Amino acid sequence: MTDKDVETGTWGEPEARPAAAPVTPADAADAARLVSFGLQPKLLPARDAEYAELLRRYREDPPFARLADAVASGLGLVVLEVSPRAGMAVTAAEDSLFAVRMGDYARRASSDAGDRFLHGLAHLAMAALAFPRPEDLADDGYIGRITVNGVDAFVRQACQRLEERAEEAGENTDPASDAPGLESAWRIWARRSSTGATKDARRLAGSTTGIVSKAAAFLTDSGFLQRTGDDSGGTYRTTPRYQLQVRDMAGSAAMAELLDLGVVPVSDGSASLTVPTAGEDLELVAGAGLPFHADTP
Question: Which residues contact residue 71 at a Cβ distance below 8 angstroms, ignoring those fewer than 6 apart?
Answer without folding.
Answer: 28, 31, 32, 35
